[in-house]
Amino acid sequence: MAIASEFEQIFHIAGVACYIASAVAAWFTGFRRFNSLLINLAWIMFLLTIIVRWVTLGQGPFMTLYEVLISNLFSLGLIFSIACYLNKSVQPAAAALSFILSILGIWSLATSTTPVPLPATFENNWLWIHVAAGKIFLGTCLVAVALSLTCLLQMYFMRLMPAHLRIPETAENTIWRYLSLAFIADSVMLLAGAVWAHDAWGRYWAWDPLETWSFITWLVLAIVLHLRLTFTLPRWVYWSMINGVFVLAFLTFFGVPFISLAPHKGVM
Amino acid sequence: MYKSAITTLLRRLASLRLTLIGMLSLLGTILFTYEQPNRLAELIVYPLSLLAINLLAALISNVRFRYQPWLMIFHVCLLLVVVLAGTGLLLRFEGRVEIAEGQHFKDATVHPVTQGEWYQSALQQVDFIQGPIEVDYHSELRRGTTRSILQLPGMAVTNEQLIQIGDKQTYQAANYRFATTPNKGYAARLAWQDARTKQTMQGFVHFPSFPAKDWKQEMRWRTPRGEIVQLTLKLDSPVKQDASWTLRSAVPAYLHIKGDEQSVELAHGQALNMQTGTLRFEGVVLWMGYQVDYNPLLPWLFTAALCAIFALGMHFQARFWAGEKGHQHWQAKDV
Q1: Contact flag A235-B335 (C-beta cutoff 8 Å)
Q2: Mean pLDDT calculated for residue range B180-187
Q3: For B144, phi and psi rounded to 5 degrees?
Q4: Domain limits of chain A?
């Protein structure tokens, strides 16, 4: 148990170090190749952290802030790597993404690793669908955010940005592709979450703080997509709104469940 | 003239600006009533109605839907979700019931928690007999698996014909859903023989939740003739804090009875002669607390939501992911 815990700690620290290194490497043209390698290495380290913890405790990473952080550090890195593989225009966003993940990584080092048992009623197939959809939502949303954040920075600090971090015009469509995917995943997450809650607590929706903020995030995302499909606004407005959606999603994932006193507390 | 006025009205109601206003007012309503969920249930009707009217008008008057079938399916399903969720609230029922081992459901009392205005009880169509209950506990009183056996009426008591429900399995009958809860405990099975009529009655007295309130296994109880006695259940084996164990009914126990004039302790099968009758202690069983839900529209609501997501996925696929066409559309609208 103690050895397993040490391994978990080593993989965890190594994962955070990889994200920080990738955030630094992303700014230097000479280290571009290392950047994607470091992101891949980071999510693999977090995958190992999860595996060791899972085997030791006999339950998935669903209950504590630490577990939610490490599982997202794995899924967010993995989804970004897949997005980079599928679409080269996503790669310049690596600097923004690595920076966000580094902050999450440092935060995870400061959180308590004490486990909380998973109640028997929580463990059903809908939990898996709910959590998986949530990870895809946040991952695809982060790709859109990293791109739009880079676009915003590019707009105002063009001269200061290295050439390899500049985003091509074609990336604009990529932002909306990933945001549309995020909306679908968010909808699946809400639906699966409702079915899961019905089995775990006996009601599918009760406007508890986490449900309310999840719905607000979904609604704001729907408003942003609706605006894009029906109105013509300056690009920076859309980019800013996409960043706003991510801030909301971030607070919903990593804030509300751990500060509210509702049954959802500590459970994703 | 008349037709033109209707067309103008429909177009105005179908306006995309109105959709935006509806969405923003829905957001505003949720934020405004954040601390008052009950008020939200009243106020959310207005922005949802506005959005539903807007959507209905758009479906009738907006020709774009005819060329984008997935978008139309998504919006029709979205409308259905709102209608089904609203109607479900009017039809729903939620209640709690405690049933002891060996007891018929029809003899138990379901206590309503919430019920919609259109709800009409069909609980009389439900019947089962509560069978053995078992709940596993791990060290530090961490609750493990719950197993509750139900025997359906008319079934022979063989293992093959009994159903087991628990943490991951509910019992469903007449659109009601019975789910086990963490609330369970011991019940004393009592027989009362009236001194005057010699008529015998049997029943259960449920003690507080166990092991949550293991230190307070007592209950004030009124006999069929109106005498009030204090019943205390004394269990031989204490609750284990540092080992795994299973909560089940077969435990040695005594029933302590304290009335106005006497105080006695009864073992299994012993009786107490009181002024108005005889009270016999027939043993200890477990009771299980169930949550009872009724919402016949839930499967339809789930299907409509699933269809909406699928249709939107197909629409987005065509819009954002279908190669250059999608690109051209976005480029043309860019500022």
Answers
A1: yes
A2: 92
A3: -105, -135
A4: 2-259
